[in-house]
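Example record used in the benchmark description.
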Amino acid sequence: MTSNSNLQTKACCADLYQSDLARMLLGNSLHPGGLRLTNRLGRLMGLSHGDWVVDLATGRGASASAIARSFHCSVVGIEYGREAAVEARQLALDAPVPADSWFIQGDAEMPPLKPESFDAVFAECSLSVFPNKELAVAQAAALLKPGGRLAISDVTVEPGFLPEELDNSLGQLLCVTGALGVDGYAELLSHAGLVNIYREDASFHVSELLAKIKGALAAFSALACVLDDQGQDGIFGDLSPETDWNGLIEKLEQLVSAGRLGYWLYVAEKPGNGN
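Model output (C-alpha cells):
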C-alpha cells in the first residue's frame, strides 16, 4: 500500500517537473543527453517495428514520441502529473510528424496496464526520484512479456558525496537527492528477477548538462532578485538567489571528474524465450 507521505512526494515531484524552473534549467527532455541518449537507450533495448513500449514518468512525452518515431513502435507514456499528461497528449497531436504514442495519468510505481503485455519498458532519469524504487522496478518487470527488456537511464551518486546544498528543489530537478550508486540500479534489476544486465557509462552527458545549467542559473538569479524587489519572492520555491550557484556547479563538476557523480544506462531482460 502506498503511504500518504509517498503520495505527497510524488505530487510534489510532478509539480516541480511541470514548473517554469524545470523548463528553464532542463529544457523539454528533462535529462542528460537529451533525445540522443533516448535513441541510444532504444537501440540497447533492441526495439523494432510493431513493438509495444511503456515510458514510465513520461513528463511531457518528448522521449515517448521520439522512441515511437525512431523505431516505428507504439509507446504508452505514464505520468503522475495530470497537467503534464494532458500537455503530452496535446503535443503529440500537434506534432508535425505523427507518432504512435498515447499518454495516461497514472502512478509509475503501480502502472495501470495489463501485465506481460509489453515488449519493453523504460524510465529515463526518473527512478532516482521514486519513493519506492524496488516496487517500481518489480511492477515494471511485471509488464514485460517473457524475453522483454527493461531499460533505465539515471543519475548515479556514490553514497556520502552529495553536497548538502542540493537537499532542495534543485537537487530534485537534477535527480540527485534520491540517486543510487552505480551498482544500486543493477541490484534493483537483479532483485526483480531480471537477467543479462547490461550497463553503460554515459557520465560525460552530465558535464554537458551542468554547463547549460550554469548559464540558466545565472539568469535565474537575476530574475529571482527582480521578483524579490517586486515582492514576488518564493516563486521558485526553496531556491535562493543568494546561493553560490557557480560554486555549487563546480562541486558537481568535480564529483563527475572523480567518478562520484555520473549518468548510467542499464538494460535487463525478463527470463523467457530460452533464458
